[in-house]
User: Fold Branched-chain amino acid transport system permease protein from Actinomadura viridis.
Amino acid sequence: MSAREGLAGFAALRWRWIAAAVVLLAVLWAPFQLVPFRVFQFTMVLVYAVALLGLNLLVGHAGQISLGHGAFFAVGAYGAAIMMDRWDLPYPVTLPAAAALAFAIGLGLGVPATRLRGLYLALVTLAIAIFLVPLLKRFEPVTGGSMGLTLEKPRPPAWSGLAEDQWLYFLTLAVAAAAFLLTFGVLRSRVGRALHSVRDNETAAEVMGVRLAFYKRFAFAWSAMLAGAAGCVYTWVIGFVSPDSFAVTLSITMLAGLVVGGLGSAWGPLLGGLFVMFVPSLSQDVNKAAPGVIFGLLIIAVMYVAPTGLAGLAGRAAHSFDKTLRKG
Assistant:
């Protein structure tokens, strides 16, 4: 490598760090400049990003299809709501408890993943999402039935000087940052390499000594844990849960958001969270009579322009910028 190429590479790396610093400053600055409703919207983007982080690990990195991710999201949401409403537990305790509950259920439901694949696995996960809503309505003494449960939102401590919406935003941001760092560490370890080998070629992975059943169940459990944590934070932010909030369309929208954001990409879950939060409401604003049509057309348009998702499109733009710097 010539000195000129080395300097160009250093300049490109410097620009990436500058871009990351700008994004970080914008994230920290936003809740102090936006109106409360916008702060709430971006808080929900972070909530969905944590849920999609788990789905990305399962589908994007382990290659296991799931159409029932919203069910694990609901497990975390209802688990936290019941602990806060029925047992009067403080909200910080509900996060690890809801994540552990979702992890245990995901570990158990991961058993079919060791025997099924492709369309058959997708149908099993879809069935989980379908029967969850009537199940929640049936146990009314615990779940509140169709009326759901109304909860008190976490209040900011006096020393923080923050409004309620700002406090919830920073709580969610802290959970999201921890989830991303933890998942990044897993994917950088031998576990991540094993998951990628399972995704790329199961036969070759098994020949190399990778325990397929173990890593498939791990992917389901880890994915469910992150969805459960996101569901818990959802309960904090919304202050209300009802069965109809977790219909099967939520699972489908999550999967669509992840694909649009960028399957298997580090930025895919965050971009997918933006998609899940803003595109349905945008579709409703464009055409109140047929928001589903607008929603579908937007997905088709994004996939046509960016087949590898928005993260892939951004990556190609960054690569072109790097090449420009190297030639300059």
In short: The beta strands are 149-150, 240-241. The radius of gyration is 21 Å.
